[in-house]
Amino acid sequence: MAPAIPLQLGKRERQIVETLYRAGEASVAQVLAELPDPPSYSAVRAMLNLLVDKKVLAVRQAGKRYLYRPAAPKERVRGSALRHLVRTFFGNAPADAVAALIDGSAGKLSADDLRRVRELIERAERDAPRPDSISRLG
């Protein structure tokens, strides 16, 4: 299983990995161009290779260039990062994290966002075990 990528890395490593998740695949120069207050080209190249060694990134050669990409699919990393966020900042209470999203703490939700959240809640309610069925199972 892949590590919780952005959360178990240093700040600069996280910036690099996040850049590659946005880009999909990029060269050292492309990553360097996206970093705030970037270090030297050789420092970025060294960090990219370290992240390859850690199996966070994968690399392939295209002509004379090396292209880097995330080793794990964004969806798997997203779930791991979200679990870590809920555990760390919301006391392992997913409802508190949802409340922070809905109350606008994380940014304003559009009418479409709210509709989608409502649909997801309704689906989760339909799929959740009923209290009476739980007592019959035990």
Report on the architecture of this protein.
The protein has a two-stranded antiparallel ribbon with strand order 1-2. Mean pLDDT is 86; it is low at 1-6. It has 138 residues and is mostly helical. It contains 7 helices and 2 strands; from the N terminus they run H-H-H-E-E-H-H-H-H. Helix 2 (28-34) packs across helix 3. It has helices at 11-23, 28-34, 41-53, 74-89, 94-102, 111-127, 131-137, and strands spanning 57-62, 65-70. The longest helix is centred in the last third of the chain and has 17 residues, at 111-127.
Question: Gist?
Answer:
The protein is mostly helical.
Give a quick set of tags describing it:
138 residues, mainly alpha, 2 strands, 9% strand, elongated, disordered N terminus, two-stranded antiparallel sheet
In terms of topology, how is this protein built?
Layout: H1 11-23, H2 28-34, H3 41-53, E1 57-62, E2 65-70, H4 74-89, H5 94-102, H6 111-127, H7 131-137
Antiparallel strand pairs: 1-2
Helices, by number, come to 7
Which percent range fits the helix content?
55-70%
SS-derived structural category: mainly alpha
Distance between the ends: 32 Å
Number of distinct beta strands: 2
Instruction: Sketch the major β-sheet.
Output: 2 strands, antiparallel
